[in-house]
Write a structure and sequence with these properties.
34% helix; 118 residues; 5 strands; alpha+beta; 5-stranded antiparallel β-sheet; 3 helices
Length: 118
C-alpha cells in the first residue's frame, strides 16, 4: 500500500475507534458519561432499623454482612441478608427506606417487616 493511503486508513481507524469508545460512555438519552458496566449493575442505598427481641431498635448496616470488597447490592441480595438476620434471631423485624439505582434509573425502595418492597 502506498504510504499516504496507509496513513489515511490509520487515521480513519483511529477516529472510528475513538468514536466507538466515546459512545460507550453514553447509554441513556440525556445521561452523558455513563459507563455501560454500571448501567447493568444494581446498587441499593438503604437506611435500615432493626427491632430486637426485647423491643429495642438499632441501625442495621447490611454491608457488614457482605464479603470484603463487595459494594453491589441488588434487592434480591438485600432480601437474602434480611432473611439471614431475622432467621438467625438477631432481629424480629427490619424496616427502612432507600433508593435502587439501575439501568432503569433511580427508584424508591422500602423495607417493611423485613420484606423488600419496590
Amino acid at each position: 500500500m502506498p504510504q499516504p493511503v496507509l496513513s489515511a486508513a490509520q487515521i480513519t481507524l483511529a477516529c472510528a475507534l475513538a468514536a466507538w469508545m466515546i459512545t460507550g460512555f453514553t447509554n441513556l438519552p440525556g445521561r452523558w458519561m455513563r459507563w455501560r458496566m454500571f448501567c447493568r449493575a444494581t446498587f441499593t442505598i438503604v437506611t435500615l432499623t432493626g427491632t430486637t427481641r426485647d423491643g429495642r431498635t438499632e441501625p442495621v448496616n447490611v454491608y457488614d454482612h457482605l464479603s470484603p470488597g463487595s459494594f453491589i447490592l441488588g434487592p434480591p441480595q438485600l432480601q437474602a441478608i434480611l432473611d439471614h438476620l431475622t432467621h438467625s434471631g438477631r432481629y424480629t423485624r427490619i424496616d427502612g427506606t432507600g433508593r435502587v439505582l439501575s439501568a432503569r434509573g433511580e427508584q424508591p425502595v422500602e423495607v417493611r417487616n423485613s420484606r423488600v418492597v419496590l
